[in-house]
Amino acid sequence: MAAKALSFDVGDYVVYPKHGVGRVIELQRQEIAGMQLELYVLRFEKERMTLRVPTNKAESVGMRKLSSDKTLREALETLTGKPRVKRTMWSRRAQEYEAKINSGDLVSIAEVVRDLFRADDQPEQSYSERQIFEGATSRLARELAAMEQVDEPTAQEKILEILRKAAAIHNKDKAPV
């Protein structure tokens, strides 16, 4: 067997693509189906969920350390871009958004947040758009909060502030002269 490429220590924050930011709370050894397994025990506070991931499967499920500062800057820069709204059916767009969120890639999550953000002067979002927007924003905010060592509401406010400033700039471009 190959040597462990990924290794996380107790106390490390990690990103599990389907659930977002969690913390390694312990390393366990368990016998399952007659085999000895080493497991990472992850705790996701927001969902009040504990997840056990075999150490040899961590990489294949996409578990990773928090993003680098460069990736975080790139994600925050993505938020300032012009929203891209595709004219495809909502069900298809919703699937694409969910796939981006569940990829665990910070920049892809930022794209979803940017594309679904509505400023106060813009038309109302549908319920499902708002649900996906809030899920993506929360996922982005949790990683930002863990990296900047702030709480999630503070990180979320920072994201919304970036989005509001960007929307003001982009809406000014559309205003009739």
From TrEMBL:
Query: Per UniProt, what is one Pfam family of this protein?
Result: CarD_TRCF_RID
Biological process GO annotation list? rRNA transcription
Cite the InterPro entries for this sequence.
CarD-like/TRCF_RID (IPR003711), CarD-like/TRCF_RID_sf (IPR036101), CarD-like_C (IPR042215), CarD-like_regulator (IPR052531), CarD_C (IPR048792)
CarD-like/TRCF RNAP-interacting domain mapped to chain residues: 7-117
Q: Which residues form a coiled coil?
A: none
Name this protein carries in UniProt: CarD family transcriptional regulator
